[in-house]
Amino acid sequence: MLLKKAKAGALLDAIAAKERLFVPADDRGTSRFVAYGAGVEPRFDLLNTKLPPKDLLFPATETLYRWSRDGADLAIDSAFAETDPFTVFGLRPCDMASVDRLDAVFLTKGYVDEFYQAKREAATFVAATCAHPGRACFCDSIAASPHEAPTADVLLEDAGEEWVVTPQTEKGASAVEAWKPYLEEGDAEPIKAACDLKVDMAAVPEKLKGMFDDPIWSDIGDQCLTCGTCTFVCPTCYCFNIDQDVREDEGKRFRCWDSCMFTDYTAMAGGHNPRASKESRVRQRFMHKLTYFNDRYDMNLCVGCGRCMRDCPAAVDISLIIDRIAASEPAQEKEAMAHA
Amino acid sequence: MPKTPIEVSHGCARNNGEPYVPQVCRVIDIQEQTHDVKSFRLQTLDGKRPFACEPGQLGMFSDPPYGECMFAVAGVGEDYCEFIVKNVGFTTNHLHELSVGDEVGLRGPYGNWFPYESAKGRDMLFIGGGIGMPPVRAFLRHCLAHREDYGRIDFVYSASTYDDLVCKDDLFNVWPNEPDTHVHVSVYHAKEGDGWDGAVSYTAPYLEQVFAEEGLSTENACAVLCGGPSLFRTCRESLLKLGFAPEDIVTTLEARMKCGVGKCGRCNVGGVFICLEGPVFTEAELARMPRD
Amino acid sequence: MADVQDIIRERAAALLSSGEVSAVIGWGVGRFDDVRFPLVVKRAEDAGKLVFDASCVQMTAKRLLEHTGDGKVALVARGCESRAVNRFIADHQLTRDQVYVIGVPCPGMVDPATGETLKRCAECQVRNPVVHDELVGDPVPEPKPYRFAEVDRVEAMSREERRAFFDEMYGKCIRCYACRNACPCCTCRECFVEQDKVGWQGKAFNVNEARYYGMIRAFHTGDRCIECGECERACPMGLPLMVIMHQQVRDIDKLFGPYEGGGLTDSGPDPLRTYKTDDIEEFM
Asked: How many CB atoms lie within 10 A of CB C264?
């Protein structure tokens, strides 16, 4: 079945009449996934949104519980609430792959994060393939592919003037049932693009284990500002802080995005800070992104979307870093990571 | 006689409801341990123990509006959980101002626990310093509660001064009276009239001294170590020097923790989260982890 | 600028081989031809990696602060970098003898996204280095373009329009602190944002917290700002940060003037933190 791009508006209106719908769109000079409604122009032509769709599942700020005090008495109420169904329409394969990573973090390993789970189960993901990957895109050598998104509920394959629509899950199948009036019979040849930029991740996670004291971290540290830009535009960065908002005798505790790049990220009471140096934080970022995550979840955390490369104020380039690691000589058996 | 290898389980804690939302508990007892250390016993509002937990596990103590801190559970009773808290910062400062009857939040238990199962049959050598007492205390109490399962028990404990010794009653009155349980205490600094007439030594040399004087053996022993960075470093070296294998040295790590369930990333070291896979690790496992 | 680039490379190699400096800070080429990044060269044989052309968009001076412990460090400095050097000296972050300034007059950089002159260069008042140990290339004309057009536009807004302007601006802020980390005035070891115990800055992501952060930072840097525009360039969300900084410079000129921005010399005075007996205010 086909969805003509020129007629997508009618379908979007129909979806939005029944539930919340998020589409890539311009937003005050940048771009992000925006709630579709009057005045919103979907930008399916954008290579990718500046801000990733992770905030739809993992908001930048989210209340966990509320408390109030009355003398010595304390009352605590969870702020958890079920989420109404919503659709994310037009996310790229890299961003769909990022959802797989977030699922691994929030839904596995003993604890299920119910705040994330509620949104995840309420979401229908409609992924759109990329006909023209950008120069900083390298998804197909690290985590995904411009022309497929196997975990999306519905796949829209770009065929030029239209998309080839394929439901891939039960949720996707029932969604597409409702789209029938807006779809057309027929075939079209999906554009199967490939990324120009390729990285060689094969040996990188293993090599990194011997590179704890490598000069690469100092070199990156010379360049990097340790701001949080990369971590906030990254679709898979998930570190968060838990803090509070207090009004006299009541308040709420919320979680909010945080960044391993910030100086005070590991600062402890009593003054000790294991990662006080810029170099150690830079090392943590890339070690976590390119090897520690693999140890836990058996997949690459970086999905090759290129956002950090485009937006870093100091032009730190993760693809070049991967190149350098891939080209490094394997370390001899040494206690490079011996506990101090 | 072949001994079973020490096996620390990781990632064993499980969801028991909302991991981020505390339950309200009441402070039922506060003891002043030292000038800056207090122990707190917490109970649910209907008089029950807040949660069952294994020795070594952690609990997140919250005192709205001041904040949350993760502490090792120092002991559990029929109807309470006990924490020992040193006043080092903003939140602990406010915790120290609590009174009996005040209500606070508690969530947990988090983290893994000491390998009390695979350590059965071994002689136990506990080493602790200062506020490193709580996790060691939890494990030691477990061993004492299952006395026949363990061999000889030694506890080498030090603190800066006599006043800084935590759980003095346990150290001097309770534990030495347990079967084949030997407590060796030293302080780093002693003064005239401070009430101390025992050993004056840093932990590592004292440990080596006690080991020699008591004729201890590494043959069938398990060492359990908990203390600050420098105690950890020096005692680890001493233990290795005395002949302990890294697989037989168990310790518990510390880090800034926020979520407690291995998601927020703060306590991530290498491929593990200290709040979820840890805080208990063997020295052999630590040697394979990155330095930070 | 090709000649300038060659001279920079020669000078860098010479300074490093002689041991006069332990590092030279300039720009290198990224993966793509139009991408430059701040590069710290520590060996003479790497001097060839340094480039100087119209794509060198980053203001690199802040990296000086991380390397001065290793001995003297050389900096390829245009007008903006040279003012940053003065800023560091005036703020007691550096002493003059810790930095060797390779001064380079700058005709302005080009924004790779638009192909046009980079905004901060289009507003630049000082293209020729104000401090240098040597000068590479001939001084360039300094037309001193009017830089207050946007300030005028915002000042002319009604309250509602202005409210909408700032709500939009701070509603976009993602609190990455790129502006702070890029800014040569922001050298506090512990930023107010990090003073958790005091709790000046809330951690929630909303327009109020972002506005609070932005305004406080603007005032903390206000009378020291060198108008390099690096904050605005670094901002991934395109916040018009310079409108507030230019406004402060103009206000300070009006109230405490004459004042043309910070970093023109290495000794201030910084008007908001310098008291004189003929101050227009009777009471501080």
From this structure: 17
Q: DSSP secondary structure string, B30-48?
A: EEE-SSSEEEEEEEETTSS
- Any CB–CB contact under 8 A between B64 and chain C? no
Task: Indicate which of C195, C197, C198, C200 best probes the interface with B, i.e. most B CBs within 10 Å of its own CB.
Answer: C197
- Give this complex's ipTM: 0.93
Tell me whether residues A258 and B286 touch, CB distance under 8 A: no
Listed by start position, the domains of chain C span 2-135, 149-273
Residue written as token pair 């720009």: C27
Question: Across-strand partners of B272?
Answer: B269
CA distances from residue A108 to A310, B58, B262, B270 in whole angstroms, order as listed = 31, 20, 10, 18
- Per residue in C31-83, pLDDT (tens digit) is 999 999 999 999 999 999 999 999 999 999 999 999 988 789 999 999 999 99
The single-letter DSSP state of residue C230 is H
Question: What are the residues whose beta carbons fall under 8 Å from the beta carbon of C190, sequence distance 6 or more?
Answer: none
List all chains that touch chain A, counting a touch as 3 or more CB pairs closer than 8 Å.
Answer: B, C
Residue corresponding to tokens 């040697």: B287
Question: What radius of gyration do chain B's Cα atoms show?
Answer: 18
Say whether A240 and B265 touch across the interface (CB within 8 A).
yes
B41 is written with which tokens? 């016993």
List, run by run, the mean pLDDT of 10-residue segments along chain B (292 residues): 79 74 94 93 94 91 88 92 91 92 92 93 94 91 95 95 92 94 95 88 94 93 90 92 94 86 88 88 89 80
pLDDT of residue A330: 66
Residues of A in contact with C56 (CB under 8 A): none
Domains in chain B (CATH in brackets) are: 23-110 (2.40.30.10)
pLDDT value at A339 more than 50: no
Stretches in chain C below the pLDDT threshold 50 = none
Q: Please state, in angstroms and rounded to a whole number, the distance separating the CA atoms of residues C278 and C284.
A: 12
Every domain of chain A and the residues it spans: 2-60+77-182, 204-239+259-327
Whether the bond into B109 is cis, omega within 30 of 0: yes
Judge whether B41 and B77 are in contact, CB under 8 Å. Answer: yes
User: What pLDDT sits at residue A85?
Assistant: 97
State the Cα–Cα distance between residues A305 and A92, nearest whole angstrom.
9
Q: What is the pLDDT of residues A272-315, one digit of tens each?
A: 888 999 999 999 999 999 999 999 999 999 999 999 999 999 99
- CA distance from start to end of chain C: 49
The three-state secondary structure class of C23 is strand
Tokens of C124: 């630049």
Measured distance CA(A142)–CA(A198) in Å, rounded: 8
Measure Cα distances from B278 to B56, B84, B110 in Å: 9, 19, 9
* Neighbouring C-beta atoms of residue C73, cutoff 10 Å: 24
C-alpha span between A47 and A240 (Å, rounded): 28
**Average pLDDT of span A38-60:** 95
**Which pLDDT value is given to residue B213?**
94
Token pair recorded at residue C283: 């009471």
Is B89 in the C-facing interface, judged by CB distances under 8 Å? yes
> Is A174 in contact with B252 (CB distance < 8 Å)?
no
Confidence (pLDDT) at A327: 94
